[in-house]
Design goal:
231 residues; alpha+beta; Immunoglobulin-like; five-stranded mixed beta sheet; 41% strand; globular
Length: 231
Amino acid sequence: MRTFIAVIAIALAVAAAGCGSRSGAPAGTGTGATTNPHMAVPPLTLTIYVTSSGTLAPKVVHVPQTRAVAAAALRALGVDAPVTIASGTATVALDNAPDDQVAEIVYTLTQFPTVQRVNVAGRTGLTRDDFAHYVPPILVDAPAAGSTVARTFTVSGTASVFEATVVVQLVRDGEVLSKQTVTASEGAPARGTYSTSVHATPGALTVEVFAPSAEDGSQQHEVDVPVTVAP
C-alpha cells in the first residue's frame, strides 16, 4: 500500500511539473510563436507645410499609421476633405479655401513623388510656382522643424539670394559645431536649389541657414530649424 501511494504521489508531481513548464514558457518561443496583436504600432512621421507671418515653412507631425498618407497630411493641416491622385494630379474635394491654406495644401501634397499638380477650391493645375509669394528668400525643405535625423544628414531647399551664396551651420547651446558655404543652382532674382551633407553628434541642435551680407557678412534671411540627432 505504501509503495502504491508513493508511486501515485510521484506521478502527480511529474504531471504538475510538466504543466508548469508549459505555462511558464517565454512568449514567442518555439515553432508556434506568433506576433503579439496588442503590440503598439509606431506613429507615421509626416512633413507638412504651414504658413506663418505670410511665409511657408515645413514642420514635422506624427499621425496614426495609415496607407492614405496624402489624406493624413491634409488632416494634419486641418483639412478634412477627400483626396484622389491620378496621372500626377491630386484633387482635393474642398470647395473654398483662403489663398494661404491653398498654398499649404499645394506645397504639402507636391512633396510626394506621385503629385505634380493640385486641383483644389475651384482652381486646377496648381504647382508650387503659383505660390512663390509665400516662399521666403531661403526655404529649408529638409530637415523639417522638429524632426529626428541621423548623425549624417542632408540640408536642402531653395534660395533666392545674392550670388547664390548660402551658409549652413549647426549650432548647439550657442556653439557653432560646423559651418559650410554652399552655392545654390541660381542666384537672385532667380530661385535656385541647394543641398549639402552635414554631420553631428547625438542631441538637440539648430540648423541655421542664411545668406551672408555683401556689405559686412552678417546673417541675412536666416532660417532656424530645430532638430534632434539620433544616437
